[in-house]
Design the sequence.
């Protein structure tokens, strides 16, 4: 999956040292209710990622790894949860996360895998909340430190079709 320099490539074993270095911040995945394995082995990290995420990809800018996107709790035809991380601060706020999300969204829609995508974000993570809102996600009712946000994929397919009809 490619979009002008941004690509999603299936996660490979050799990506785990990169992810292990960059996912050390517990806040990255804790909002998803996920906890990295306690062991320091990148092989254990590989096993955990493959077990946790039904679909897992490395986000690349040209040929350089810059992040991770994964789909977990996939209920075919219904819903799935997503994690997306752009690892380096210098790569953030450049549209790479939005383009990576668009690539995965396009493929989920093409293969009719899910009708709704959910993300979990810590309520005090204003940067992530802003990102997901810009991607069309809305907060769902609930309480606690984590906000669950959702986006109806079928609704956006309808909007896309309507835009193509008006402009195309």
Sequence:
């Amino acid at each position: 999956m490619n979009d002008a320099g941004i690509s999603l490539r299936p996660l490979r074993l050799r990506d785990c040292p990169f992810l292990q270095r960059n996912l050390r911040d517990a806040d990255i995945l804790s909002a998803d209710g996920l906890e990295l394995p306690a062991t320091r082995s990148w092989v254990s990290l590989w096993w955990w990622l493959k077990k946790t995420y039904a679909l897992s990809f490395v986000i690349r800018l040209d040929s350089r790894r810059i992040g991770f996107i994964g789909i977990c709790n996939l209920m075919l035809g219904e819903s799935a949860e997503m994690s997306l991380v752009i690892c380096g601060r210098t790569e953030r706020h450049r549209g790479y996360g939005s383009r990576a999300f668009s690539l995965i969204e396009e493929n989920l829609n093409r293969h009719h895998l899910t009708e709704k995508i959910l993300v979990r974000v810590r309520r005090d993570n204003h940067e992530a909340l802003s990102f997901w809102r810009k991607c069309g996600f809305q907060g769902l009712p609930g309480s606690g430190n984590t906000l669950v946000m959702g986006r109806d994929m079928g609704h956006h397919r309808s909007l896309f079709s309507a835009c193509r009809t008006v402009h195309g």
About this structure: The two ends are 24 Å apart (CA to CA). Strands lie at 2-3, 6-10, 53-61, 64-75, 79-86, 116-122, 138-139, 146-152. The chain has a mean pLDDT of 80.
